[in-house]
Amino acid sequence: MGMFDFFKRADIDRGVEEYRAQSGGVLLDVRTREEYLQGHIPGSENLDVQEIQKAPSLLPDKEVPLFVYCHSGARSGQAAFMLKKMGYTNVTNIGGIMDYHGQIER
């Protein structure tokens, strides 16, 4: 890891491509329900970061590939950290939807 890697933003476009190429993966939008309904990446599931403790009942397989995003990447970073603490082994923070260049579903 280089000195400036800390400042690199996650590449959500690449993250969505990796999700689509991954069999059985979950694209997890951790914004509020209201934000999700205003526009989200097709195929994503919504679980507000404030309710991330519900993840084990919704996602019982702790080895499932999780691709987590929010608005800017901050909440998805928090959610990814918490999911890893809960024992999820394959979690990637792919960043924020504000940087996404693909189709948005409403």
Produce a short descriptive summary:
The protein is an alpha/beta fold and 106 residues long.
Key phrases:
single chain; 106 residues; alpha/beta; four-stranded parallel sheet; globular
Task: Give the SSE map.
Layout: H1 12-21, E1 26-29, H2 33-38, E2 45-46, H3 55-58, E3 66-70, H4 74-85, E4 91-96
Parallel strand pairs: 1-2, 1-3, 3-4
Description:
- The chain is of the alpha/beta class.
- It is built from four helices and four strands.
- It has helices at 12-21, 33-38, 55-58, 74-85, and strands spanning 26-29, 45-46, 66-70, 91-96.
- It is globular and about 30 Å long.
Major beta sheet summary: 4 strands, parallel
Number of strands: 4
Count of DSSP-assigned helices: 4
Residues in helix, %: 25-40%
Distance between the termini: 38 Å
* Strand order, sheet with most strands: 2-1-3-4
Contiguous uncertain segments of 5+ residues: none
- General form: globular
Succession of helices and strands: HEHEHEHE
